[in-house]
């Protein structure tokens, strides 16, 4: 039997712009040695693997810089409109391999390092993940509670840029966080204004002073409320420094700025104490008050006598401690407001921002999130990319809608076999990785059931836990039955101050400790918590997944992108009609996903009726058994009361109604088990899902932002070679 192709060998057969010329190999080797000698000041006698990594990274960077310079020269000559996307969250993962793939250099680099006696995969593994901010793949911070204080104590003068203060789904107003948010937007706006003021016409540079043209040359996209300070800061610059009158400055500000909302959870929306602004940013507070005064005048003129509406729409919340509602500031100060999935955008208009939508409906749009197929298919799953390219060609990498062409192969025996083979190869590789790094041996023929995302009550990792316990109890009750083997993997990080999330992680690991060491269960059920979940681990786990758990309470998830990554990589989704799951079901066909649970209307109706967890607890024996095991110390015999807080929350304070969806979730998981026993039919559904992924390309998302919010088209001209004299 021939040896399976490595991921590097597979990527040699599929690339973004065709094959990179092997004639580049000699040049790459020369540049590699040049950087090793003259940048790192090492030779082969003393160089370490880390040195070789930096030599390769600098070699690739040379190619990137050449393109960067040409691009900047082009922009300097053409003076196009520019987009400034301000965000405090970036989950870039490793950049070396991603850059090589995007530059179509990976083949040549692989050959060059091979000829130099080096292993490129080993060099790539030297790079740490870059995780900035918080979220599913970001670095929320260590679960060690003293992490932030320890860093802050090191050097107070550098605090503002030393560590990004985590801001998770429970907003906590901290002075350092506000300083950091202002630091980002102030630096950005200074750069924007500097660049706007200097323009080139022919060979002449002239100073641009007509700020009414700013929206024609600048688009500022506010990614959630974290950069909301850009609005009062831009007003301060225009009014105080550039001496524009208020009305003109405000018109420029609104036409320049746009706002993307990422959450419907009220506690996640930033609300800064007025006292903090008084102390830290007094001029900006004056500007916010003036924005609010004029805004409320417009509201009062349109809705005379409606004082309750004035209160709801004010930028300043008066109850108790006065706070500035930054989401309201973003809406008022922007010309466009969008959610990141259709259901999310509809909820914003119907509930969270209902008053603002009624007043200015033209502002509200939807821009469904997307993912890049270069990283999330070509790079992390080259085997699947190759199988797809063999059927429909390579152009799908730049036009993901072409995946629809796979529908005609849904009954093709060879294609079904190839897709299933790639999945099994990915599972085998991930099983080896888990054995090496987690010291657990799993059955690669078991269903890989994966839920990886931020640990949060609304993500409902607890619902997953209840299914695991129920499945465990069923196996124990009937050990001789032919059970569908499962390996359940849960990964994600908890915010430093989010105690419940940390307890959920402890519960997952405690369940795994019992299940994984029960000889009656054996390899029919394993539970693994994927520690230090990050982009690089996602790139291994997602291609290996059979089942993707997207089980948030309907109406709570803005969109999600992990769900799209799993779908593109051939996992089937078990999920609620929430976030982008709704559009995934539309694109792939609802029958090709495992949909369960309440819809948004059902959740709303239950809120009106009143959710009483004890009714489900008393009515469903398997649910009662699982809860009693958790509360009684079955999974924590040395600390029997360890998880009583979780049980108390589930029984009395669960806003996300885990028990209400339990019964339907368990039934849906039974359907999953039944289908998994029929690999051919399972793989057919996988093909329908892959074929339906075209909509979820970030290329489509960015193009929609560009045309429908920023009012611009991408620059597609072929750029000239760099001019070293410029």
Automatic annotation (TrEMBL):
What name has this protein been given in UniProt?
Uncharacterized protein
């Amino acid at each position: 039997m021939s040896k399976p192709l490595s991921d590097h060998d597979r990527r040699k057969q599929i690339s973004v712009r065709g094959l990179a010329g092997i004639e580049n190999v000699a040049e790459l080797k020369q540049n590699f040695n040049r950087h090793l000698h003259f940048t790192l000041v090492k030779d082969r006698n003393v160089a370490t693997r880390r040195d070789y990594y930096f030599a390769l990274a600098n070699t690739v960077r040379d190619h990137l810089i050449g393109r960067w310079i040409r691009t900047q020269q082009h922009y300097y000559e053409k003076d196009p409109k520019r987009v400034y996307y301000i965000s405090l969250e970036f989950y870039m993962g490793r950049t070396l391999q991603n850059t090589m793939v995007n530059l179509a250099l990976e083949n040549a680099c692989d050959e060059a390092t091979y000829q130099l006696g080096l292993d490129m995969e080993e060099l790539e593994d030297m790079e740490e993940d870059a995780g900035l901010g918080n979220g599913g793949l970001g670095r929320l911070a260590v679960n060690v509670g003293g992490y932030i204080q320890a860093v802050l104590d090191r050097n107070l003068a550098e605090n503002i840029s030393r560590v990004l203060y985590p801001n998770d789904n429970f907003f906590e107003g901290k002075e350092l966080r506000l300083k950091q948010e202002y630091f980002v937007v102030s630096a950005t706006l200074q750069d924007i204004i500097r660049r706007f003021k200097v323009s080139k016409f022919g060979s002449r540079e002239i100073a641009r002073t007509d700020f009414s043209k700013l929206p024609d040359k600048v688009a500022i996209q506010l990614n959630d409320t974290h950069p909301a300070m850009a609005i009062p800061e831009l007003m301060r610059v225009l009014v105080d420094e550039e001496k524009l009158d208020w009305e003109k400055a405000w018109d420029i500000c609104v036409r320049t700025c746009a706002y993307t909302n990422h959450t419907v959870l009220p506690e996640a929306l930033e609300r800064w104490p007025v006292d903090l602004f008084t102390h830290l940013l007094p001029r900006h507070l004056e500007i916010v008050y003036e924005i609010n005064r004029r805004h409320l005048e417009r509201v009062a003129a349109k809705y005379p006598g409606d004082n309750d509406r004035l209160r709801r729409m004010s930028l300043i919340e008066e109850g108790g401690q006065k706070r500035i509602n930054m989401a309201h500031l973003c809406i008022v100060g922007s010309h466009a407001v969008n959610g990141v999935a259709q259901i999310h955008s509809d909820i914003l208009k119907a509930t969270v921002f209902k008053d603002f939508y009624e007043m200015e409906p033209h502002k509200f749009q939807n821009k469904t999130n997307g993912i890049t197929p270069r990283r999330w298919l070509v790079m992390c799953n080259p085997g699947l990319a190759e199988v797809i390219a063999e059927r429909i060609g390579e152009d799908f990498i730049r036009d993901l809608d072409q995946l629809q062409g796979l529908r005609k192969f849904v009954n093709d025996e060879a294609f079904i076999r190839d897709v299933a083979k790639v999945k099994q190869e990915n599972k085998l590789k991930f099983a080896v990785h888990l054995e090496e790094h987690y010291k657990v041996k799993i059955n690669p023929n078991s269903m890989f059931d994966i839920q990886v995302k931020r640990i949060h009550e609304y993500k409902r990792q607890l619902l997953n836990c209840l299914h695991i316990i129920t499945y465990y109890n069923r196996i124990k009750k009937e050990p001789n039955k032919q059970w569908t083997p499962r390996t359940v993997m849960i990964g994600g990080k908890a915010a430093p101050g989010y105690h419940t999330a940390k307890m959920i992680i402890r519960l997952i690991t405690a369940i795994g400790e019992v299940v994984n060491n029960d000889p009656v269960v054996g390899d029919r059920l394993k539970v693994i918590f994927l520690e230090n979940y990050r982009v690089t681990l996602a790139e291994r786990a997602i291609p290996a997944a059979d089942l993707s758990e997207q089980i948030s309470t309907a109406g709570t998830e803005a969109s999600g992108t992990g769900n799209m990554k799993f779908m593109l990589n051939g996992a089937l989704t078990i999920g609620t009609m929430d976030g982008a799951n709704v559009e995934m079901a539309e694109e792939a066909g609802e029958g090709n996903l495992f949909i369960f649970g309440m819809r948004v209307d059902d959740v709303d109706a239950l809120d009106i009726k009143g959710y009483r967890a004890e009714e489900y607890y008393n009515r469903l024996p398997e649910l009662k058994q699982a809860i009693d095991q958790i509360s009684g110390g079955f999974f924590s015999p040395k600390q029997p009361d360890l998880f009583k807080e979780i049980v108390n929350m589930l029984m009395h304070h669960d806003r996300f109604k885990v028990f209400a969806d339990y019964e339907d979730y368990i039934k849906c998981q039974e359907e999953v088990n039944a289908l998994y026993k029929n690999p051919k039919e399972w793989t057919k559904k996988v093909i329908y899902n892959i074929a339906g992924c075209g909509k979820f390309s970030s290329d489509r998302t960015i193009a929609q932002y560009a045309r429908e919010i920023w009012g611009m088209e991408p620059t597609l001209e072929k750029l000239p070679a760099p001019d070293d004299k410029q």
